[in-house]
Target: ATP-dependent dethiobiotin synthetase BioD
Amino acid sequence: MKKYFITGISTEVGKTVVSAIVTEALEADYWKPVQAGDLHYSDTDKVKALISNKKSVFHKNSFALKTPMSPHASAEIDGIQIKLDQIKEPKTKNDLVIEGAGGLFVPLNDSDTIFDLIKPSYKVIVVSRHYLGSINHTLLTVNALKEKGLDIGIIFSGKEHQTTEDIIEKMTGVPIIGRVDEEPYFDKNVIVEYAEEFKDKL
Model:
């Protein structure tokens, strides 16, 4: 049984689409431990809508917060505190895809971050999207994961930027799983195509 943690170099870089692709490729279960905002159509709902296979199970968030902000701030608005011991990995015999919130160092409370949710047994997929500063953010993210001795892969998202992608590959030495292009739309068929493309590299 494999467990994949999907993180990004920032917010809005394509983690949810990548999570759907990996979930479909492995026919894995999906779990987003902390959802902040968009409860009417959460990331779990979005992934579920993009999955074709009948095997995947979609597990409940440990925390579903009302405001689209950093989890620590959103939790404060809701009058609660996020505690790590309340975030319990769902029990399943299937592969599991876990989607983080924002980047590695997004705070959950005054002392813990998303990084603290990543267990040594997880394979981590970093979603990197080109923008001014993205090389720095990608290298910082990968280096932090390396220091923890984790198994890492990178998926690029958005319009291709060859010089950026080349230097990230050279400087990190991390396997590149593939890239998700700037598609006109994402539906089940598009997700299946990427799932087939990435399957052997996961």
Observations:
- Helices lie at 15-26, 43-50, 71-77, 134-147, 162-172, 188-198.
- Residues 3-201 form a domain with the Rossmann fold fold (CATH 3.40.50.300).
